Request: fold
Amino acid sequence: MALQRPKGTQDHLPDGSSGSHSRTNRSDTRAEAFAQVVETARRVLTRGGARLIQTPIFEEADLVKRGVGGSTDIVRKEMFTVHYFGDHGGFILRPEGTAGIVRAYLENGLKQWPSPLKLWTHGPMFRAENVQKGRLRQFHQVDYEVIGAADALVDAEAIELMVQVVQALGLKGARVKLGSIGDPADRGHYNDYLRETFTPHTERLSDDSKDRLDRNPMRILDSKSQGDQTLISELGVKPMLDFLGEAAAAHFAQVRGYLDTWGVEYDLDPSIVRGLDYYRRTAWELHHEGVGAKSALGGGGRYDGLAAELGGPETPAVGWAFGIERILIALDAEGVQLPEQAGPLVFVAALDPEHTGLAAQVALQARQVAHAEFAYRALKPGNVFKEAERRGAIYAALIGSDEAASQNVTLKHLQTGEQRRVAINDLNAFLLEHP
Ligand code: HAM
Reply:
């Protein structure tokens, strides 16, 4: 059997070629739809003042471990380690974009830029997760970060921009779940409370959660084990929001106040737990029925401690990312069709072999004004039209000996059937006027 792509990866195929409807056990992504998600995000985020940044897809292992955090599933179970000859795996394929962006911010002195600095990026991320629908090992994110401001206004603007991007894509059913995970001291108190609450019932916890009880009890709340979830509701565990200190509570009230004023809708989620360790205060996720309750379209939050964790000065920051593949699943579920890539305006073909070069030349010339393609071999007139239609062309241009002698093409509008002679010299002007 021919070689296949690794589990948990996808091919992004051109329009019309994916055959995804006929293949039942493989899901491919449409490269054009994917690009349009990125393009829409670029438009919305650029209007919001964000600048594009790209960082390497592999980073020092230490950056990932310190950035994402030692108690996370990502660091404990899902890292792709990079080996090359003579090396022992000191690099990790990035599982997310934030740690690398903050590293780049510190390393390149971006602090000198107008503050706060808004950055956005998009690209592949890697997590060795259990593969299922919408859960891949190589997936892609659009990521937005604002570095250098602690103000609640920045959090609210970030959430608004995230909502703007999905709305601009035509998605209607995405809901923001908003919460706060407080300051580190608040979380300390909450974790103490959770340890006290769960310890008498340790034997009922899943193995993973027994481990979490020690390292980061909050993560138990996020457990995928049904037994854990039953225990949580039986015990009536209080949410993180009940443990917010004064400063974090005031900040959260401000964020909500701005969103309410602007009419940005959200559902309060008093017990939100994010899967990364760097968050403080505001935390949110974007959910959609089409991708299931357990998986988010996107997520974000404030991460004021990350820069210092990476060896830089204390730098307040907030940001979010969404998964492009999951956005495409949600768009599919809502039946939103992103436009397909258009075919050529004109398909040029020679009717005899001695004129194939001329046909090509006409197409090359037409490319100054439009998308033009040509046949590499001479075709019979009927086949010219067939080939032009297969490519989705608007016009077919034919060159036989008559046309070649008079330096004309016969141009046929494939939908109306209207046919005319156009001088090769006038073709570009005609195409511009009749696109
Ligand atoms: P995250 O919640 O880990 O946050 O990931 C953000 C989004 O990436 C998820 O909501 C999901 O759509 C997508 N995603 C994550 N894992 C997978 C996967 N295995 N397969 C498909 N899609 C996936 C972050 O990554 C943070 N860096 C977001 C952030 C930016 N926080 C502050 N700034």
